[in-house]
Amino acid sequence: MTSKLIFRCLINLISIVPLLTNGQNSISDKSVAKMGASQVNITPDKPTFMSGYGSRTTPFIGVHDSIFASALYFTYEKTKALFISADVVGFSSNFIDTTKKMISSKTGIPLEYIMIAAVHNHGGPVTGNFRNETPQTGYDYPAQLKEKLTSLAVEALKNPVPFHMGIGKGFCNQNINRRVEFADSTIWLGKNPDGPCDHELDVVKFEDMNNNAIAVLVNWPCHGTASGGQNYLITGDWPGAAARYIKHQAGKDVVVAVTAGASADINPLFGPTNIFYEIDVVGFHVGVEAWKTLTQTETFPVKSLQATNTTMTFPGKKPWKGHLPQTSYESGRDREIRLTVLKIGDLVLSGISGELMTEMGMEVKKQSPYSGTLIVTHCNGSSGYICTDKAFSEGGYEPQSTGFMPGVEKPLVNKFIELIHSF
């Protein structure tokens, strides 16, 4: 009797275990953060004009290296979020609004949980970001790009998997302040080793539960201007070179998304040039440092997913002529700045719709309670240059060309911090 009873108990236990296991899995599935990642080639398939330099007068003549867009999809409990980075100069607010609606209708992700950022690559095609730029070739690349970004988002949602995430901090001094005092005492574009410059290189590692790499996110403050106006070949500039290096180390199927930090007044150490030996060296060093940092970065589970956003409106001004600072400014239309903050675990993606001067970005990171705070510029729109008040008193290209009056710095930084503290 004893042996029979034991046998029956074992049979009953075996039949119950799957039920218990299934129940635990279903509970676990609801409480485990998942992610998906995808990447698409967005290189124009027909000749069109390039963006970033007004000196170019004809369409591109070839492709040196393809440009890409990357999507990172996150879901936790009932929350879904999407981050997209693309190897182009920027996106107009209208482009963003239309594309986000297209993505939301296909995926169900709320508009406020979608971030679309350009890496500010000056070696890519016209996207309609600047008013004075039109394709002029009859080839509607921006329309094609909207469709590709929407399909990219849908692809990222297909097979999300549980993941771990790690945030690492490296250092890369291949960037430099570009506001130089010349012999006539004016400030203009150059290379200023004594000017403020954020050399911090942030990398985020995403792995599945078997420690296989899913994606890498890189953030570094630098203009995508290693390639210059004399270059007529499509290129991803230094961000493209950095992504290629990381993919070579991590595997070709790993999605690599590169973003530009606060770099309105920061240029690469090399360029602008059409010599790719020099263009690629910046991205090579970014890639080497990013990979070294990644290998030293531990990953942990993600237990929260939140987003918030706001729009700030400031008095506008018209550009002035020359390099000298002004005592008064000609008024222009009011202009808006969009702020979008996405918090994934301890990672805080702080998106801003313009080119933020490096000191302002450094101040936001300094005041943030989260060490994993990244400033993502050219995000969800195009507000142009956003300058410190000090820059207006000095003159130079950025304050001369900005569409904002002085006085943006303090309220903007304070609002950024307020949004970050709201989590």
Structural class by secondary-structure content: alpha/beta
* Extended strand count: 20
Largest sheet: 9 strands, mixed
Can you tell me the number of structural domains?
A: 1
Radius of gyration based on Cα positions: 23 Å
The helix/strand series, from N terminus to C terminus, equals: HEEEEHEHEEEEEEHEEHEEEEEHEEHHH
Assembly of the depicted chains: single chain
Percent helix range: 25-40%
Tell me the number of helical segments per DSSP (H or I, 4 or more residues long): 9
What gross morphology would you assign? globular
* Regions with little confidence, pLDDT below 50 for 5+ residues: 1-28
Q: Residue-averaged pLDDT, rounded?
A: 92
Instruction: Please state roughly what percent of the residues sit in beta strands, choosing from under 5%, 5-15%, 15-25%, 25-35%, 35-45% or over 45%.
Output: 25-35%
Q: In angstroms, what separates the terminal alpha carbons? A: 62 Å
